[in-house]
């Protein structure tokens, strides 16, 4: 109770950041979720195809999140000292790094879609439909990289409303175009999976264009010239990547680990893939508020550390560590109650429906632990530049516990998909134990701005 005492300054800042960020995260993730929901009306094979094709996008966005999450730690601390030049240099590094990642992923998705889909599925129809979707949607990867950089770094300067509004517009466009292209309205022929991909590409380009237009018309702190973004010394880049490289590795290696889960589920059959894919949509909705809160945590702690208020940063960290899991308990109960309503949207077999219900229930039980680990790694450790420990904690949990259990439980023990999912989730318990230790050690607190100077 002492940790969550009423502090007007704390809660005012928290909600002014967390609510818009949570809403934007929900809307951004909904761009792909809307595809899955609408495609769900076409049957199980299209659902599995779009869900598995989006695993590539998932890998890509987690890499972008790693790059820009590391950048946001610097941006938050630079912003506490109103160092706009430093922020614009960070933006330049993030845009270049994200652009390179986008080009690599685009080449793979456009020229080798069948080979990539074969990694995630064994059903020929799923591979064919997924390849069609992947080849088109890859055209949006580069603009997505630009959008990520502007959105995440803008939030680190306290501007959380602009990304939220732009994402709302993008979601509206995507939903409308999905309805037109997938099912064939306004004289368009029904395009199914290809229509969903085209709608997503158009929505992403509109989103990116709006970001650039608003930022430069408002002359925001991110309205950098090309010269300002490229005014990078070797020492600046080296110190940036010394911290950020472990965030990038963390997200990428964690993403590879969760991709291995998908491979294991894919080898268990189409029904297992569909059950997990449907459940993942519920997970995205349930966790969206916590992604917002963890991002707000990173900004608030980064501002305090940059301003050299280390004791206040530690007090805030303890408060987040209590608030997150407490709220997670209530969200878990809510998820269990609304699961039947959400599952009724999908046109699936009775077996898939029951398996999805059990997976969602198991997920709900693990939410408090997932939230604590999210706040610890993304919000607390990264805000203080303790990215090495965060990397070891996150990657270790996935690769030493989650991945082995996914393959052993699913392919050797032949357990039902919901029990395999429960084994995979057990990694959260182990990570939480080490996360508590690191939080109270205070070894995560580092002033990144002073290191740059």
UniProtKB/TrEMBL annotation:
<feature type="transmembrane region" description="Helical">
    <location>
        <begin position="284"/>
        <end position="301"/>
    </location>
</feature>
<feature type="transmembrane region" description="Helical">
    <location>
        <begin position="160"/>
        <end position="183"/>
    </location>
</feature>
<feature type="transmembrane region" description="Helical">
    <location>
        <begin position="195"/>
        <end position="216"/>
    </location>
</feature>
<dbReference type="InterPro" id="IPR047135">
    <property type="entry name" value="YsiQ"/>
</dbReference>
<keyword id="KW-1003">Cell membrane</keyword>
<keyword id="KW-0812">Transmembrane</keyword>
<feature type="transmembrane region" description="Helical">
    <location>
        <begin position="90"/>
        <end position="113"/>
    </location>
</feature>
<feature type="transmembrane region" description="Helical">
    <location>
        <begin position="56"/>
        <end position="78"/>
    </location>
</feature>
<feature type="transmembrane region" description="Helical">
    <location>
        <begin position="133"/>
        <end position="153"/>
    </location>
</feature>
<dbReference type="InterPro" id="IPR048279">
    <property type="entry name" value="MdtK-like"/>
</dbReference>
<feature type="transmembrane region" description="Helical">
    <location>
        <begin position="388"/>
        <end position="412"/>
    </location>
</feature>
<dbReference type="InterPro" id="IPR002528">
    <property type="entry name" value="MATE_fam"/>
</dbReference>
<feature type="transmembrane region" description="Helical">
    <location>
        <begin position="418"/>
        <end position="440"/>
    </location>
</feature>
<protein>
    <submittedName>
        <fullName>MATE family efflux transporter</fullName>
    </submittedName>
</protein>
<keyword id="KW-0472">Membrane</keyword>
<dbReference type="Pfam" id="PF01554">
    <property type="entry name" value="MatE"/>
</dbReference>
<feature type="transmembrane region" description="Helical">
    <location>
        <begin position="245"/>
        <end position="264"/>
    </location>
</feature>
<keyword id="KW-0813">Transport</keyword>
<keyword id="KW-1133">Transmembrane helix</keyword>
<feature type="transmembrane region" description="Helical">
    <location>
        <begin position="359"/>
        <end position="381"/>
    </location>
</feature>
<feature type="transmembrane region" description="Helical">
    <location>
        <begin position="322"/>
        <end position="347"/>
    </location>
</feature>
